[in-house]
Structures are given as C-alpha cells and as structure tokens.
Amino acid sequence: MSRNSDKPNLTPQFCFNERALRDFLRVSRGTVDDSIVQNLNALITPGQTGFDPTSTAERSVKLPARRPIDRQTCGNFIEKVLFQSWQTRSDVLNYCAGVALDPNDPDLVSREAESAKDRERIIDERLDPYSGRFFPREARTESLANLIRNERGVESIIRSRTWGLVMERCGDDGIHWEEALNRWRADRQSTL
Does the predicted TM-score (pTM) go above 0.90? Predict the structure, then answer.
C-alpha cells in the first residue's frame, strides 16, 4: 500500500518556490487520493472466499458487486493513511497561507523602485505603440495567496471525491469528510 509523502521542511523559500509546492501536493495527492481505488482494493484479503468454478460456467455481462471492506481495516486506513496525508497537506497549505499574509515581503522594495522608474519614463507611442502599457509585476505574496486559494479549492474537490469512494467501499456513516477529519483531529489532540 502506498505511504503518504513526507512533510517537507517548511520555510518561506519552500512556499515561494511554486514548483516545489505544487510538486509536493501532486505527489502527495497521487500517492493516496489519485490511487484510492487501488489502495482500497489492497485492503481486501485475496482468496477469502476461494475460487468458485461455477463463476466461469456462464458469461456475465454485468459487473460483479464490489466487495465491502472490513470496517476495522477501513478505519485503520482512514486514520493512519488517508487523514494523515490530508493533515500533512493542510499543514503545508496553512503554513504557506501564513507566509503569504506576511507584510514584510522582501520583494516589495524592488517592485516599488521598478514602479517609480516606470512612471518616470517618457513614452512615445508613435515609435512603440505598446510602450504606453504598463504591466506591474504581481507581488510574490499575492501570487502565493492566489496559488494557496486555488490549491485549497482543488484539495476540497479531491477530498470530496476520495471520501465518496471510501464511504462507498467501507460503508457510509452519513458524515461529511470535513466532519470526519475534524473528529480525527480532535481525537488526536486529546491523545497528545
């Protein structure tokens, strides 16, 4: 069974390196959420019922019903693999969201100097019709905040889909994934 990816060393440099942040999220999602059907199938002990020779006597066009997974096995998978992976990603996104809110953006001074220089330019639109356009560079913190907002939306969609598949195979308790994750977090806090 797949193991969740390790939590990266959280630094502002990690967050501002959008490629590293996206790669971490992609690998973590691919390890658990994108392969959830395979992970759930791995929880079923093969050969519990044994081979039935009559199963090949007649061709069946309908798909066989998916075998439900033992509730204890499912619960262990949810607590030790699924929620752990989700929590690691949440921790990274929350940390990077905090970095994006930091008003001490080291890029701010250079952007302000560039902006002042661009405002002082003399523009002759006859020579260069595009020179009158000014495209200010977006602050790194703004760019990071947009990335975090987008990734949180993706995370919500992925978790909803994953939870639906898990509940289909493990038995639906009728609770939403956010409620289940919050219960797990509360239980974890109480044991620490």
Answer: no
